[in-house]
Write a structure and sequence with these properties.
This protein has 209 residues and is an alpha/beta fold. Helix content is 20%, strand content 22%. β7, α4 and β8 form a beta-alpha-beta unit. α3 packs parallel to α4.
Length: 209
């Protein structure tokens, strides 16, 4: 892999696996492939993102009495899906998945740690109370290392993986999504996700070891 290409592994955490607090469809199926990819060492730069919410986070349905998980509210003037409590800081479900050897990872970007701001993308938080999307620092980290292209995989394909790839392009990187190493919250979203990737100039590629 060229030295200017980085791998971003998004939110591969137990809470997003079948049986977890916010299960993605077949989320566990990508674990062996990501482990193999990291062990092969094909990428000079590897970043993992980690959902890392405080208890009582604004994205949790439990923080809004009278609402239900997967409903929507307005948060800071923007549509916000309400999720089951998930990836609470320090809990086993928030850890990076133990089935992957993470030793090849150069940096871990923890996101969603501000109680009042959700965070899907590895590059920028969602909209905050002032209308801005605060940076996570990932773009600068990549640029400092001469990275111009990113390959994105992980969970969930239709939310955090998609937003990460879209933000990569918006911030001036070329981006591709490793389709076989990602899974959605629900497969019914796949056509919409493919359309969004195409519209954003994001390539859909397979994995080669």
């Amino acid at each position: 892999m060229p030295a200017d290409t980085a791998l971003i592994v998004v939110d591969v955490q137990p809470d997003f696996m079948p049986g977890g607090a916010l299960a993605c469809h077949q989320g566990d199926a990508i674990v062996p492939g990501i482990d193999r990819l990291l062990r092969h060492g094909r990428y000079r730069h590897v970043v993992a993102t980690q959902d890392w919410h405080p208890s009582g986070h604004a994205s949790f349905a439990s923080s809004h009495p009278g609402t239900e998980a997967f409903g929507q509210i307005l948060l800071h003037g923007q549509p916000q899906t309400l999720w089951p409590d998930h990836c609470v800081q320090g809990t086993p479900g928030a850890a990076l998945h133990p089935g992957i050897d993470w030793s090849a990872v150069d940096a871990v970007i923890r996101k969603g740690s501000h109680r009042e701001v959700d965070s899907y993308s590895g590059f920028r938080e969602n909209h905050g109370p002032q209308g801005e999307r605060p940076s996570t620092g990932l773009a600068g980290w990549l640029r400092d290392r001469g990275v111009t292209e990113v390959h994105v995989c992980g969970l969930a394909r239709d939310v955090c993986v998609l937003w990460t790839a879209q933000d990569a392009v918006a911030l001036g990187f070329r981006a591709s999504l490793l389709w076989d190493l990602s899974r959605p919250v629900t497969p019914q979203s796949d056509d919409v996700t493919r359309d969004a990737l195409h519209a954003g100039g994001i390539a859909v590629i397979g994995t080669t070891y």
